[in-house]
Amino acid sequence: MPSILQIVGILIAAYCSTFIYCFVRNLYYASKSGLPMLVVPWDQNHFVWMVTAVALRPHLEKWLPKSIYKRLRLTIYGWEFHERGRPHKEYLGGKRTYMHVGLGRSEFWTSDAEVVWEVLRRPNDFHQLDLTDLFMARFGHNVLTTNGDRWARQRKVVASVINERISKAVFDESVRQTEGLMDEVYRSSSDTSDCAETNKLFDMMKKITIHVLSGAGMGATVSFSGDTLEKPKPGYKLNYIESVKSVIYNITGPMLLPQWLLANWPSTWPAAENMRTLSCAMREFPVHTKDMIEQERQRAAASKSAETRSNIMSQLLKASESEADMKGNALSEEEMIGNLFLFTIAGFDTTANTLSYALALLARYPAWQDWLLEEVDQIVPSTATAAELDYTTVYPKANRTVAFMLETLRLFTPLIHISKQTATAQTIQTSTGAYWIPPKTTCYVNTILLHLDPAVWRNLNIQPGEESSDDDETLFRPTRWLNPSGSAHVIFQPPRGSYVPWSTGPRVCPGMGMARVEFVTVMLMLLRRNRIQAVCLDGEDEKQAQLRLESRMRKSQSILTLQMEGIYDVKDATDGLSLRLVKRNRE
Ligand code: HEM
Q1: H runs (alpha helix) in 269-311
Q2: What ipTM describes this predicted complex?
Q3: pLDDT tens column, 376-393
Q4: pTM of the entire structure?
Q5: What is the whole-number distance in angstroms between the Cα of residue 6 and the centre of ligand 1?
Q6: Any idea what DSSP says for residue 214?
Q7: Cα→Cα distances 552→96, 151, 368, 404, Å
Q8: Helices (DSSP H) in 424-501: which residue ranges?
Q9: CA distances from 456 to 112, 461, 462, 537 (A)
Q10: What residue's CA is closest to ligand 1, atom 20?
Q11: Closest residue to atom 6 of ligand 1, CA basis
């Protein structure tokens, strides 16, 4: 009879041998592919490593030999943002496509625009990762979590939904919400009425984003302050917006816990209140969504005209029903709820963090803020009331603001990599040769490094008065997006596969237009009446405060999406990162 110790020993040996097996298989695949290989001593997707490695980093740096630590760093989640081109220069002779040989799945990495385009234009060969289901399919499969025909059927419906009518609704809702934000900032500030300091501006970007998604997405409008929030219906603990907020704020962690654990979370354990609310939210969110779909159906049936309301849900319902009429391809109720959940999740963190980086960049670079203010003053009349601002006259003129967004997304791309997986081996043909990609391989597009490719970005559209430099691609310079006057396009159109914050090809983000409208509107509304400044800490001058902001941005972490650390969920006045709004005199 083997002893318990022997059984434990055998189990540990069996577990360790899986790593050895993976490593040997990955080595074999990498050499068969003929691609350069980068050997790393661990697996970035090992669950325990994923949740502990970022916190362990300073200790590992202190205790491990430098040569090992430098490779191990390439398995710590988010390394692409911190390491940029270092591994390519040090280990890969500058090559942009290679096999990452570690102790987990076989991994193919690229930041070569031609290869990126090939991977992303072939969704039937490069599928969504299985892991996507864990976060995104909690309330039903949707356009992000499916592949093949099931994806194509849903995509057709979803792609037609975010149209110009939705853009107008997003514009109007963003105007309303940003007005509410400014009221709240000035009302709650103890400063003079001409300026207000707050460390809650980043939290407010999240709030605006949720409110725009609920208003323009589901027709569930609410004021910025929340004073028009409906009471939960009888039998419910939360209303729709409260349940959305709870689900969204917990998506990267607690939402993965089983429902029974959330419901029975002991009151003496940490975050008990949050867990109980989340448990209700998980139960009530799909019920609220179902109710709202049903109400929308009844509204549409009662209305004699074919005209529908301008929100994503009503458009989705209409598009799904017209598909049903034509080919019997309507979305099932599960798919409808799954997609409405996806719109909320996919549009939230990405847009909110892009707005947050833009605020930090405005405060970091006052000269770029002045450049933006020139445009704001030309296209947004100082005397116009919120109701008088019109999407069709204002938005198309906001070229500098769009350039500011595109540059923010180039350097602070919310998804630092786009990942796909192969089921069977694939070949990619490029102008420099063919690449063989093994079966069951995760293919990563390193968006951070892709967006720093000097061949595309260095000294692009240098304007009169600007100087060329040999690290220009690493600098924040929104003017690179503005083509010389007389060009066919005002905004620079990057070569295929070279700029992919919204991905590219058939699975390009369908919310791209919506995110652009929301970003531009929030910026225009904030800047038409205010300047944004960094707040100096004791003993700091303005320049030092700006450099502190830059270092905060440099230390960002990727938690589903890239974000600055410690700027959200501020508890008291000393927490987070403070910015100052200063009222502008536009007379
Ligand atoms: C700055 C804001 C945004 C960024 C950077 C962004 C980025 C992306 C990226 C990179 C993908 C591809 C993911 C993959 O293939 O794995 C994607 C897909 C998607 N996004 Fe966005 N997104 C943004 C805003 C939005 C908004 C506002 C919505 C909707 C309200 C939205 C809805 C979707 C959907 C439904 C998909 C799945 C498309 C498919 O697989 O066919 N996104 N997004």
Answers
A1: 272-302
A2: 0.99
A3: 999 998 888 888 899 999
A4: 0.95
A5: 50
A6: I
A7: 28, 39, 19, 19
A8: 447-450, 454-457
A9: 11, 11, 13, 39
A10: 509
A11: 502
